[in-house]
Amino acid sequence: MVIKVFLASSSGSTAIKKKQQDVVGFLEALKVDYTELDIACNEDNRLWMRQNVPKDKKPANGIPLPPQIFNEDSYCGDYETFFDAKEDNSVFAFLGLPPPPGSKQAREGEEEDEEQVYCLQEEEDLQSEEEEELRQLEEEEEAEAQEEEEAE
Q1: Which has the closest alpha carbon to 82: 26, 39, 30?
Q2: pTM of the predicted model, to two decimals?
């Protein structure tokens, strides 16, 4: 899986440059493999990005601005959604990547898995107990029926 970050190398907007630097810097800090795709120098990149940002995620003017983030061909989001994921400590989920081993997110995932296994075990135990009780009731009913037959 390759994370693609669409950037504009020659943007005149300071805000866009800061947003791009924030995304790239954070991905580097997390050691996430990514590819920068320049939309200022490569028309194919610009067209691909514009065509692949979902319509409901495009701004009112219809032209998405960089940075735009994809996992392969799957749209992850723009700077605002990246920033929200960063604030929520859920960047790996945002990117569609598994959290690195030993990370807080990985440990939380393991705890959830353990809890699910525990719940499933409890459920199986209850089901076994119910089946055992049902089997005992059936045996008692059979014994009573046999006693009645023998008494007649």
Answers
A1: 26
A2: 0.67
Instruction: Please state the rounded mean pLDDT for residues 13-31.
Output: 94
d(CA 144, CA 42) in angstroms, rounded, equals 86
Give domain limits for the chain. 3-97, 99-152
The alpha carbons of the chain give a radius of gyration, in whole angstroms, of 29
In degrees rounded to 5, what are phi and psi of residue 72?
Answer: 55, -115
Q: In terms of CATH, what superfamily is 3-97?
A: Glutaredoxin (3.40.30.10)
Per-residue 3-state assignment (H helix, E strand, C coil) for the chain:
CCEEEEECCCCCCHHHHHHHHHHHHHHHHCCCCEEEEECCCCHHHHHHHHHHCCHHHCCCCCCCCCCEEEECCEEEEEHHHHHHHHHCCCHHHHHCCCCCCCCHHHHHHHHHHHHHHHHHHHHHHHHHHHHHHHHHHHHHHHHHHHHHHHHC
The whole-angstrom separation of Cα 53 and Cα 85 is 18
Q: What is the pLDDT of residues 72-91, one digit of tens each?
A: 999 999 999 999 999 999 99
